[in-house]
Specification:
The chain crosses the membrane at residues 24-44, 56-77, 97-117, 129-147, 183-200, 212-230, 242-262. Its EC number is 2.5.1.145. This protein has 276 residues and is mainly alpha-helical. It has a domain at 6-46 and 125-272. 61% of the residues lie in helices and 5% in strands. It is built from eight helices and four strands; from the N terminus they run βββαααααβααα. It has helices at 24-46, 53-77, 86-94, 103-119, 126-150, 181-203, 211-227, 245-272, and strands at residues 6-8, 13-17, 20-23, 165-167. Strands 1-4 form a two-stranded parallel sheet. A two-stranded antiparallel ribbon has the order 2-3. A hairpin with a 2-residue loop joins β2 (13-17) and β3 (20-23). α1 runs antiparallel to α5 (126-150), α2 packs antiparallel against α4 and α6 packs antiparallel against α7.
């Protein structure tokens, strides 16, 4: 029995002047990166890493996130349109405005970009930088998912839970109380950030390489797998599938996280034995 529902009627546009439009999603996206930059700056300072590398790292992260998420969206969710007009497909995929972003694509992009970044820096191994960036990505993930909530997008399935949201501005799924799946994921990211930052703040350089990123991938994508059961499918081709695309893509991410945890265990043993 439905006890209550939250009427969600937030305008996704904060202000519009002529062709200029400031949207909540863009503000959340930018705000997440700015706060994440402050966190990674603190990490670099306290671990004695050169702050001159931060600008290159920020640019790497922005490009990896945006391009990875955009390419991932087209490859994972719209690949069937490639044969219709390959040139238009490639242009839509790479040229703004970006109407579709896939978090799994961003994950793949970030991992590859950080591997490339670390190759040029002997004092910042791939797992070391991946661990530290994972802390900030959890924080950015909170802001991005909250931006999805402000956009009334990526909505959940109908439910009668007392905290159900009625997304009046989502005209495809309006008028029915639904799981606020964006909020579930946002809060999961925030809790993860607190846990990971606390671990880093307590142990810093004593953390075995791979631990934080392993926790990140397992936490985020195990929860993502189960949250998908509460969400509406994003694309028509997912209807009738036993597992949707988000769940299928989460499986290798979880396996990668488990691999990182095994590596962290090996690295911890090496530290105990005094092996560099």
């Amino acid at each position: 029995m439905l006890l209550a529902e939250i009427i969600w009627d937030i305008n996704p546009t904060i202000i519009k002047i002529g062709e200029f439009e400031l949207r909540w999603y863009g503000l959340m996206f930018a705000g997440g990166f700015l706060l994440g930059y402050q966190v990674i700056t603190k990490i670099f300072k306290e671990e004695g890493k050169p702050e001159k590398d931060l600008d290159a790292l920020l640019l790497t992260m922005i490009l990896a996130t945006v391009l990875g998420a955009r390419i991932g969206h087209y490859v994972f969710y719209e690949w069937q349109h490639f044969g219709e007009d390959p040139l238009k497909f490639m242009a839509d995929m790479l040229i703004p405005p970006y109407a579709g972003l896939a978090s799994h694509g961003a994950g793949f992009g970030i991992v590859f970009a950080l591997w490339f970044y670390s190759r040029k820096r002997a004092d910042q191994s791939f797992l070391w930088i991946l661990d530290r960036v994972a802390v900030t990505v959890a924080l950015v993930g909170f802001f991005i998912r909250f931006g999805n909530l402000m956009n009334s997008e990526i909505v959940g399935k109908p439910t009668d839970v007392p905290w159900a949201f009625n997304f009046l501005r989502n005209f495809e799924f309006a008028q029915v109380p639904r799981h606020p799946s964006q909020l579930y994921e946002a809060l999961s990211c925030l809790v993860l950030f607190v846990i990971m930052y606390s671990l880093w703040n307590k142990y810093k350089a004593n953390l075995p390489d791979g631990l934080l990123s392993g926790i990140f991938f397992v936490w985020i994508f195990v929860l993502r797998f189960f949250y998908e059961f509460l969400k509406e499918n994003q694309e028509a081709f997912e209807e009738g599938m036993s597992l949707n695309m988000g769940q299928i893509l989460s499986i290798p991410m979880v396996l990668f996280g488990i691999f990182l945890l095994f590596k962290a265990n090996e690295n911890a043993k090496k530290k105990l034995n005094g092996v560099s």
